[in-house]
Specification:
Structural class: alpha/beta
Order of helices and strands: EEEHEEEHEEHEEHEHEH
Low-confidence stretches: 1-5
Mean pLDDT: 95
Number of domains: 2
Distance between the termini: 49 Å
CATH class of the largest domain: Mainly Beta
CATH architecture of the largest domain: Beta Barrel
Radius of gyration: 19 Å
CATH superfamily of the largest domain: Translation factors
Largest sheet: 7 strands, antiparallel
Bound molecules: flavin-adenine dinucleotide
Length: 289
């Protein structure tokens, strides 16, 4: 008789390498990763967030003292800036498993910002890394070893009768995975914002979802996120649940609108700032600490 090993540690490191990349649009690249460690990777999906560690240019692997166990964080923080691996938050877009249910590959969709010639603001290290990623490139991932874990934030309360979603391009991977998970019959009103029309993705859902793509700066008269959501007539619902993620200041405005103007119970609004204009992820984390 075999007994399944029960994992009690919710998150662990996974040593992974790139197996392929696919350009999904002018500012979107999908990177697929594999590695023997993935057999221990378990996730219920939705907006499963991950911490990705990437090497600096010139390094062939990210430097994180994982051998120190729980002491890795202090030791990693203590390394010189140009040695310590860059840590960034990303979302599990998809996972593939073998016939025994063991994860074999995972996908992450990266927004490429600042990498085009003449860009107004320079690329961050993760965007730059993704734009150049190729088969064999090594990364470390701090990810889930338990399928239902606290890095999944999409949690509609029991009895939810309408799901409202807003996501900018950084949160479209999460919103896409959420939509794929919604059961048939779930009513959903969804706004997805893209930087370019060419980044718009085909989405799959069994839900009864009305999905609107907004292309930022698509010309005079393009509504802002707040204008688009404010102008919409939401289906009547007793227990709406909202999930909003993207640029922090936009997320804040939308949350305020949903709670104050639409009267959605603040406990039924999940909101996550995925990035803030003008701040790197380290700077954002320091401000929030
Ligand atoms: C839980 C969570 C999940 C996330 N999932 C994803 C995901 O699946 N895919 C994804 O692409 N991103 C995702 N993000 C956002 C991503 O972590 C940030 O965009 C991150 O700042 C990118 O790191 P970087 O090194 O490229 O830029 P940084 O070094 O962090 O920032 C450099 C500069 O670029 C600006 N910047 C950062 N992101 C953008 C952007 N998208 N557009 C324009 N300017 C930007 C910053 O404001 C800063 O001025 C997620 C964030 C969180 C918190």
């Amino acid at each position: 008789m075999t007994t399944a090993a029960v994992t009690t540690v919710p998150f662990r490191f996974f040593a992974l390498h790139v197996v392929r990349t696919a350009r999904l649009g002018p500012s979107l690249v999908r990177v697929s990763f594999a590695g023997d460690d993935l057999v221990a990777f378990l996730s219920d999906g939705c907006d499963q967030s991950l911490s990705l560690f990437i090497p600096h240019p010139g390094q062939n692997a990210p430097v994180v003292p994982v051998e120190l166990g729980d002491g890795w964080w202090q030791a990693w923080r203590g390394l010189p800036d140009d040695v310590r691996a860059v840590m960034r938050s990303y979302t599990l877009r998809a996972l593939r498993a073998d016939e025994h249910g063991r994860t074999t590959e995972i996908d992450i969709d990266f927004v490429l910002h600042g990498v085009e010639p003449g860009a107004a603001a320079p690329a961050g290290p993760a965007s730059l890394w993704a734009s150049r990623a190729g088969a064999g490139d090594r990364v470390l991932l701090l990810g889930p070893a338990i399928a239902d874990n606290r890095a999944i934030r999409f949690r509609p309360p029991t009895g939810t009768d309408l799901v409202v979603i807003w996501a900018d391009e950084t949160a479209v991977p999460a919103a896409s995975a959420i939509l794929e998970s919604l059961p048939a019959g779930t009513r959903a009103r969804v706004w997805l914002e893209a930087g370019h029309a060419g980044d718009i993705q085909d989405l799959t859902t069994a839900a009864d979802a009305e999905i609107t793509w907004l292309v930022r700066g698509a010309g005079a008269g393009t509504p802002t996120a707040l204008e688009a959501v404010r102008a919409a007539q939401l289906p009547s619902a007793e227990r709406p649940y909202a999930w909003i993620a993207g640029e922090s200041s936009v997320v804040k405005e939308l949350r305020r609108h949903l709670v104050r103007e639409r009267g959605i119970d603040r406990r039924a609004v999940t909101f996550v700032g995925y990035w803030r204009r003008g701040l790197s992820e380290e700077q954002l984390r320091e401000q929030e600490a």
